[in-house]
Amino acid sequence: MSAGLPQSNQLTTLQAMGVIVCFIIGAELLILPRELAEAVGTPDAWMTVAVGGTYSFVNAWIIIKLSQRFPEMTFYEYVQEIAGSFVGKCIGLILILYYINVASFELRSMEEVTSFFLLEGTPGWAILALFIWTSLYLCMEGITTIGKVCQVIFPIIAFVMILIFSLGFHIFDVDNLRPVLAKGFMPVLHGMGSTTLTFSGSECLLFILCRMQNPKRATLIAGWGIGLAVVFYTTAVIICIGAFSIDGVLTRTWPFFDLARSVEVENLLLERFESLLLSIWIIQIFATFTIVFYCAALGLSQITKMPYKWSLYVIVPFICVLSQLPQNMNEVFAVGAFIGKANLILFSSFPIILLLLSVWRSKLS
Fold first, then answer.
1. Of the candidates 209, 222, 237, 178, which has an alpha carbon nearest to the alpha carbon of residue 71?
2. What are phi and psi of 361, to 5 degrees?
3. Average pLDDT, the chain
4. Can you tell me whether residue 358 is helix, strand or coil?
5. Domain, as residue range, for 329
6. Which domain CATH number covers 36?
7. Which of 239, 246, 279, 284 is a plausible cystine mate for 168, CB 3.0–4.6 Å?
8. Measuring CA to CA, which residue among 20, 7, 13, 28 is closest to residue 198?
9. Which residues, other chains included, contact 114 with Cβ-Cβ below 8 Å and sequence gap of 6+?
10. Residues facing 11 on adjacent strands
11. Domain contains 8
């Protein structure tokens, strides 16, 4: 039995889909419109999201084909079967370091937004402690419990986002999206780098496919999960640009949050929606952080043969320290850009190379 992977209570289709969607929709939601506006420089930035989603699905398909060759193992286990024990463990350690950095980025983003907008004056350590220990408690129960939580979280998040999208159309001006492709398609492709961190998350199939009730439906699950994330991200970018214009988006640190602040409806229980959005966003970050935390701890457990629960405690200090290294928000955004590039390199190369190696070795045997 794999460490950290009790054999009972496998992930259902909805739970697996919830894990994928919650992994993809993270801290980038509030800042993606600005990042794409900077990278693309035209109102066509929303097209980059669709292109990035297509790339993410192709990458997920490769990951699924690789993982389906080893249906009873996680990536950390079968990479040692394919590449050998030493090389496999080195690759696994690289992924652990990557996920620790992702967790620290999500944690610091949550702290910055919460301290600035919701809990001004509250010590950062108090916010981090509550967040981390709650996530730690959830991770101890394994991926099936995380999947159940994601299954509950996603409909709530979807409802709030759809509500904000609907109300955002009151300040939407379609002229801000024109002209379409005035500078051709190259600026759209140039912005692809800004979506790598946005759509990072489909790689969780490397670790959860072996826990699915029906692994043969993994491609369908990935398609639905990535497709829903593409719809939400694309709509967010379109409405932000339509509401503020491409130049207006560039002047805002958190464009999607500013969109929620711009929405006011009289005679409703909530006339302003930014507090509701932030509350739901923190829950979403919690889900993303927990999944990343689980992936890192699972890898440490399976590579070092350390008990899974011990590995959770070992990783916590590293996440906390790394989350405090950036001195300001510009450095936090720089860390996010670095993680996006690392994701592009790691999950565009390792899965396809390992898939080809596994096919080659099976033909030789």
1. 209
2. -70, -35
3. 83
4. helix
5. 13-355
6. 1.20.1740.10
7. 239
8. 28
9. 122, 127, 278, 282
10. 212
11. no
